[in-house]
Fold:
Amino acid sequence: MALPEVKQTATEARLATLTMPDAGCTRAAREDALARVLEMGLPGRRDEYWKYTRPDTLISPEAPRAALFNSDEPLLFGNLDRLKIVFIDGVFSAEDSDDLELEGVSIDRIEDICCKDIHWAKELYGVLEARGQSPVQRPLAALNTAFAADGVAIHVTGKPSKPISLIYRHASETSDAMLHHIIRVESGAEVTILENGPAASRFNKCMEIDIADGGILHHVRAQGRDHERRAATHMFTRLGQESVYKSFTLTVNGILTRNEQVVELTGDDAVAHVAGACVGDGDFHHDDTVFVTHDAVNCESRQVFKKVLRNGATGVFQGKILVKEGAQKTDGYQISQSLLLDDDSQFLAKPELEIYADDVACSHGSTSGAIDETALFYLRSRGVPVKDATNMLTLAFLAEAVDEIEDAALAEAIVNRLEGWLSRHI
Amino acid sequence: MLEIKNLHVKLEEEEKQILKGVDLTVEAGKVHAIMGPNGSGKSTLSYVLSGRDGYEVTEGSATLEGADLLEMEPEERAAAGIFLAFQYPVEIPGVGNMTFLRTAVNAQRKARGEEELSAADFLKEVRAKAKSLKIDADMLKRPVNVGFSGGEKKRNEILQMAMLEPKMCILDETDSGLDVDAMKLVAEGVNALRDEGRGFLVITHYQRLLDHIKPDVVHIMADGRIVKTGGPDLALEVENNGYADILAEVN
Structure:
C-alpha cells in the first residue's frame, strides 16, 4: 500500500541525507531494514503510536541544534570500576575508551563483526528489531539498523568482573548520531551494561539483546542533561528460559526523548523488569513506550515508570502487556505515575493489557498528582525546610523505580544525580 | 513560654469561625491539658500553633518566649521549639524513618546556628531513645510510619519529640487508638521529657491519659473558647459527669 504523500516526502527527505555504511555481512540486514523503512515510512503526526509525541524533529533531514551542557558535577559512575567504551557524537573513540579486553566477555565494533566472522553477531544484527516491528511499527529502529555507522557487539560468555560502560559524549551542537549495539548473553552468563551521557544533538540508538537460558543482564542508563538534545532509543530484548533482564533508565532534561522497550519472554520462568525515572523542568518531553510480550509459562514482568514534571514539562507513557495464548501463570505488573509540581505540566498515559491466557495475574495502574500537602506539612513541622521537604518527597516518589536497580553503588550514583537535579530545579 | 491571646481563627476556604478568642498561657515546666467535646476547636488550635495551611488568624496572637509564632513558617516554628505530636501521624512511603529523623534534627540545629550531629552521635542517641520506647531497629529502617500499628505510630511521634528536644510539646489526642499498655508506654516517654525548661499542652478527650501524664492545669474548651480552667480534679469531673454539666454551668 502506498504511503500517504506527506509521509512519503518526509521519509525520502530524511533518507536523502543518509548513506548506508559499506558493512559487508550486515549489508543484507541493512538492506532489509531499509526496505522496512520504505514500506512503513518514518513516523508522522497522525500515527496512533505517536499520538502524544511529535516525531517531526526526530525525522527531519537535519538535526536541530542543541547547546552543550557544562557542569562541574562529578562524572556519573566516575568512581566505579568499569570497562569504558566512549562514543563522541556517535563515533567510537579508541583514545578515550579502555582496552576492550575483559574476561568472560568479548567486545567488538559492529564494523568488525564481518571481517572477524563473528557468527552470533551476524545472526542477531537487525533480527530482534525486525521481530519487534509487529504488531506495532517502529520505523526509527529500522532506520537505525539500516544506517547506524557505529556500535558494539558484546558477547557475554561468563561473568565479567565489572560493568561494561557505554559513554556517550556530546561535542558538536549539530551532531546527528546513530548507534546500534547487539548483545548476546550466553547460558548462565551475567553482565551489567551501563549507558550514560547526552550522546549528540540528536541521537538514534538501537540495542538488540538476546539472553539465552539462565542468562542475566542488568542495564542501568542515565540520559544526560543537555536541555536541547533529542533522542529516540529502542531496546529489543529476547529472553530465554529462566533468564533475567533488569533495566533502569534515568532521564534528566532533554527537549525530546522517546525510549522504547520491546521485551519478549520466550522461555519459561523468565523475569523482565523495565523501570524508568525522569525529571523535567520546562522544555521537556519524555515518552516511555514499552511493549512486553509473554510467550512462555510462569514468567514475570514489571514496568515501573515515574516522572517528575514542572513548568510545562510533558510526560508520556504507553505501556503494554501482551499475554499470548498458552502463556499461563504469567505475573505482569505495570505502574506509571507522575508527580506534577505545578498546573502547567502534563502526563499522558496509555496503559494496555491484552491477554489470551486464562490463568494469569496482571495488574496495571496509572496516576498523576501533586506533592502530598499533608506529608509536606508533617516534614516541615519537624523542622525540615520546605525545599528540602519537597526534595525528600520527590525522591520518595521516584524510589519505587530507583529501587529496581539491584546494585547499591549504581543506585546511589543515580540518587546522587537526582539530588543534584532537584537542588538546581526545586 | 507559650502565650496565646484572644486568638480568633477561621477556615481559609469558608466563612467558618473555629476559634473565638482563646486565651492560654503555658509556663515552662508545666503540663497543661485541654479537654473538650468534639468540634470544640482543640485540634485546630494545635494546627494553628504549628503552622498548618488552611486556617486564617483573624485576631489575636500566639508567641513562644515572646517570638511571634504566627509570622513563622512551620519549619521556623519547629526550630524555635514547637513540636506537634500528630493525632494521625502521616505515612511517607519512600522516606526512611532514620533519614527523616536525622534530616529533621540537623535542619533544626542548622536553623539555630548549632553544629550538626555526626552520623555516629546521631545513631547512638536514636538507638538509646528508641530502646526506651521499645522501638526496634527494624522500625527505624522502615519508611516513616508505613505499615506501623497505631501504637507504633504514636511511639514514633514520641521518639521524634525526644530527638528534637522541643521547648513546647503539643500532643494532639495522642491517646486515640491506643490500648492501655501502649498508652502507658507513650506516657512514660512523655514523662521522661518533662523538665523545668519545657512546656506541654496535652489535648485529649478522655481523662485516662491524664492518669499517666499528670497535668498541672486542666482547661475545658468548648465552641472555640476556653470555658473553664482548673486543677487535675477538673479532668475527673469530666470523666464522671461528662461535659454537659460544665457547659451548662458556663452558659
